Amino acid sequence: MPRFFWGTYVRKILLSSVAVFAFAAVAHADDLSDIQAQAKQLREQNQTLAKRLEQNQAMMKRLADLEKRQQKLEQQPRVASGANPADAMAADLPYKAAVKAPPSADDSICWHGVCVYGNFDMGVGYQNHGAPLNSQSTVGVNYLISKQSNGSYFGAAPNALSSSFIGLKGKQEIADNLYAVFNLQAGFSPESGTSSNGIGSIAQNNGLGLAAQNSFADSSKAGQMFNNAAYAGISSPIWGTFTYGRQSALTSDAVVNYDPMANSNAFSVIGFQGATGGAGDTENRVFDNSFEYRVNVGPVRLAVETQLRNGGNSGTGNAFQGDVGFDYLGFSFDALGSKVEDAISASTLTAAQVTAINGLGLPQGLGAISATVSDNTSFMLVAKYTIGQFKVFGGYEHINFANPNNPLAAGAFIEGGYTAGVVNNTNFTTDKVLQVFWIGGKYAATRDLDLTLAYYHEEQNSFIVGNGSNPTGSCNTAISSGCSGQLDAVSFVADWRFAKHFDSYAGIMWSQVSNGLANGFLLATPGVNKVSTYAPTVGMRYQF
Description:
With 544 residues, the protein is α+β, with helices and mostly antiparallel strands. The chain is 19% helix and 40% strand. It is built from five helices and 20 strands. The chain has helices at 2-74, 198-203, 250-258, 269-273, 351-360, and strands at 109-111, 114-127, 153-156, 165-175, 178-187, 229-236, 240-248, 286-297, 300-307, 319-328, 331-347, 368-387, 390-402, 412-413, 419-424, 432-446, 449-460, 485-499, 502-515, 530-543. A 16-stranded antiparallel barrel has the order 2-4-5-6-7-8-9-10-11-12-13-16-17-18-19-20. Strand 8 (286-297) and strand 9 form a beta hairpin. The chain is elongated. The relative contact order is 0.12. The model is unreliable at 1-6, 17-27 and 76-104 (pLDDT under 50).
């Protein structure tokens, strides 16, 4: 019995142990299967997360690149409100002419990065001492007191607030953050549709006395197809912009950006005359055969430009300009230096000179004019400050005129295919020094109404050659254009943007010349050393 009991008890224990072991083995197998399944699922999830992480890193890198490009573009200077669209070169982007692609909400006329743009400016005006309209002249009428100013004038007043033009500009990305750019501008007279031709307006008055002349004016725009701009180049927000062709001088860009009247013909002395923008002569406001490089380094901007000589008996001489400027907390400042060789100031030929030129059989091209040639050296300091609704502008330029190192001969070729029929290479045996000052302010009375007031002053030294009766060679009367002289002008204009693309304006400029700067004026009778005029003008612009 005990043996039977012990055997039975042992068998039960063995059977129970086998059952427990078998159950544990089955349970272990189930756990292992679950763990393997979970591990597989985790590996798959990890692979998915790794792929998403790579995608996120790529997206973050792209976002960082875009933010860097945005910051570079935001740091670049923009066109000041009210700037002349015809001459607003180098004020919006580092390359000239503001050729950035418009936003999708804009209604600009663009196709594949190429845009058509323009400006039409037409009005009516009155001058108590003026001259008849000239449809070739870039300014149309004598808004500023001029030599041929005589009786009163009332009539058409084109291009008063800005110059009319049609333009074609483009910007195409040719590599990452590198763009090809170009700009073409053709200025014209809106009252007649003729191409702006300042030298042609002078030639038109050859042989006429002052009383019979109309409102001619010398200019760099001489009837060329693209008389205001024709250039191309490459641009990078980081490395700057290089352009070549026919483009405005750096001094001309400074006048556009720092003149309170934004280079207006009817309300700005430095806009009407052009000599300030051309470093002494208006024919150098736009350079042919030119190369320019601009770059921004933080708030600082640097620019250099050169014009290369045509060669031979040509009035296109070498020119060199440099600019350093910066923007800081609403304040902008630029300092510019210039050297221009064989600069030309054009004037009409007398009847005797016309006869002599025709008799000599000199080549005249599209027409001949009288040319005073000089080598000019200038430096310019300009500044502006914006605070709230107010903007304050100021500028100074010192220009030295000397006889040319490369004298030109009669028949020299000049702008637009014209020739210098009579040439004066010795007008500045004593250097002439012209100093130009200006100051003004603009007030944004409302979102759509700007009020601008400006004052301009020019000061000329006495540079005539001494003689027996005047050994010092100095004078301060109107007896000679070489006597010391002054010009003063005050102007005011209200500009109202009453509709999209349209604005209307009304303003007036009073101007006066005295002593040497009044020499040869029709109104400067013997004993009268000062002559003046006032010229109110109203008009309307359409810009697109």
